[in-house]
# Entry
Amino acid sequence: MDKSPALNATIKIASIGIMSALAAGLMFLEFPIFPAVNFLKYDPSEILPLLGGFIFGLKEAILILAIKDILFYFLKSGDIVGILMNFAAGFAYIVPILLIYNFRKNRVFEIIGYIVGVIVTVGVMAVLNLLVVPFYWKVEMNAVVGLLPWIMGFNAIKFGVSSVITGLIRKRIEKIFE
Ligand code: RBF
# Structure
């Protein structure tokens, strides 16, 4: 972007708004992957904050993620625990990817970022689910331990798929902003 600073700021604010709204819309596609853990739903909405992060930066990515979740909370879900878990997963996924990419802005570090991002998310969400699901479903923590393979598999698939899609479309999306 080599336009005037005022125009750049305007483009950025408008883009953050559009990307947040698109992400909230994508979240409506949500569906469970594994019947054993049908409270975990796949949707590809983390792709937009991640793209926003590659284009504008980490703060902007977190802002798009937060607006997406607030919009979805009011438009559909109404479940504060589910929304906070969705935000936590998106945060654990996006932050390592963008930190690694900001260290060296090339394809290799981008791909290392996706791999680390998925691993961090699988680990963080395993712990968070162990702590939260006993209260949410009023079950023993031992029962949740039995679900861990499904929970970890879910997050690996969800964020693995989102990484592949983002890796494939990123350059094309960024061209729009050149
Ligand atoms: N979303 C994830 O991407 N990863 C998770 O590990 C995860 N754990 C959740 C645990 C509970 C108890 C709930 C209620 C939701 C969780 N979510 C998780 C969010 C869920 O997949 C969905 O996006 C939200 O519930 C919004 O419908």
User: Anything to note?
Assistant: The pocket of riboflavin is lined by residues 30, 39-41, 77, 79, 81-83, 85-86, 89, 125, 129, 132-133, 136, 151, 155, 158 (CB under 6 Å). The first strand starts at residue 31 and ends at 32. The two ends are 5 Å apart (CA to CA). The chain has a mean pLDDT of 97.
